[in-house]
Amino acid sequence: MKIKFDPQPLIEKTELIEDEDGLSRFFAALKNADIVAVDIESAGFYKYYSRVNLIQVASRKHRAIIDPQKIKDFTAFRDFCREAECTWIFHGGDYDISMLARDLEVFIPGMFDTRKAAEFLGMNELGLRSLTEKYFGFSLDKKLQRCDWSRRPLTPAMCEYAILDAICLVPIYDLMVKELEELDRLGWVREECDFVAAESRKAKENNHNDPYAFKIKGSSRLSARSMAVLREVWRLRENISERIDRAPFMVLSNQALIDIARQMPRSISGLSVIKTIGREFLNRHANELQSAVRAGLEASLDDIDPPARVRNREILLTAWEGELAKSLRELRDDLANRLGIAASLLAPSHAIYDLARLRPASIGELNESEILHKWQIRLLAEDFIPLLQQEPPLESRKSRRRRKRRPGS
To answer: Is residue 210 part of a domain?
Structure first.
């Protein structure tokens, strides 16, 4: 279904809010809004620290671009989140909700995620551009998607690009709700979105001390010694990027890290022949880079390889449990095909493995296990429970083997 929708008049009436008084007035005007659409922009593509650089909010009657670089006190936004009874609309909202919670202590109580709704409607293309094409017949211009949103002053083009997504979410929500109600799937979407929102509100910081973070693409074929060098050079890049607040790949590319780790040059002249190292970086940080390579060459190899191999393996399953998982997957795939949705939405692969290993044998046990969400249990329990009630043969309980994670599903 397509409708005629011209966002331009709404864009022209958008307010730019740069102070606390304006923020308070805006959220006071939203007091009786039934739906509030939110989108954020960050400069994470350019910066080491990904921060909320812009917030776009739209209801049926009001629209605003909120500048967190100018506003220090977000009490009005926080109070509105606690008191309002509106439906919050996002597209791919897990990231936005976590960023608002982490950076501004603004905790969105729940959401309707149009990207998640598109999955439940069986759509193949889930981006917001695809949704505007489907419902409005026009495509969003994404040329400013990689814009540096920390830059000020905001240009008219930046403001128009930013608010357009939030404006479009309002009618898209209405159209999607109607389709979901016709399919009797609206409850599934709301349940799933509530779970995603609750997880996102936890707002955990990125763990840059993850001992495996340095295992970038291309590192799996390196020797243990090269991996040790890679770890030290990666740490140096992280420290420099953090110090100057610049995205790590813009400081030194991943390919440069791999080339250094593979060649392990012991001198500055050896570093200088590696073409993937930028001249500016080498001029500024050659001594630090040489020290990092030396540290990797002298480091212990005890903690380099085995932990990574273990982390990339699947949970322990017996051969019988593996067959049970296969049967569960086949039932799931058949139902997903009949519903016209992705099988992983109905029950992700890790859930299938957990079910096969733990075998919750009743609806009560399924609920207590928290492996599946309640809407998934309602759909799958009738087919799954007879399989999960089976007891394995005695000999299959004695040996377990590691199974590599299967791609997809």
So the answer is: no
